[in-house]
Amino acid sequence: MRPRARPKQNENLEETIKRLGAVFERYSGRKPMDSYWYNDLDEERPYKGSFFDFLFLFFWVDDAQRNPSVHAIGNVARRLFGHKK
């Protein structure tokens, strides 16, 4: 019997952000991470830029329910688009 591999954490989040990146680029004409920056003084939304505004709007339809977390969204987006190893 082969050992089961542990499921990749945030796999669905990665796929969703990747697809949203393609939508963002197609309709805005800009690369998702072209204008992003990080503001460590803003604890609620440290990831800044048009693509992150788009992601937060998509994921946080109800602002009281911020799930996934800002850091989960930011880390996945940065990794997917080559800004984090």
How would you sum up this structure, described in words?
By secondary structure, the chain is mostly helical. It is built from 3 helices and 2 strands, in the order αββαα. Strands 1-2 form a two-stranded antiparallel sheet. A hairpin with an 8-residue loop joins strand 1 and strand 2.
Helix content, binned percent: 40-55%
Question: Major sheet, described briefly?
Answer: 2 strands, antiparallel
Which H/E pattern describes the elements? HEEHH
Physical arrangement of strands within the biggest beta sheet: 1-2
List keywords for this structure.
two-stranded antiparallel ribbon, globular, 85 residues, single chain, mainly alpha, 3 helices, 46% helix
Blueprint of the fold:
Blueprint: H1 11-28, E1 37-38, E2 47-48, H2 50-59, H3 70-80
Antiparallel strand pairs: 1-2
Helix pairs in contact: 1-3
Q: Can you describe this structure in just a few lines?
A:
With 85 residues, the chain is mostly helical. It is built from three helices and two strands; from the N terminus they run H-E-E-H-H. A hairpin with an 8-residue loop joins strand 1 (37-38) and strand 2.
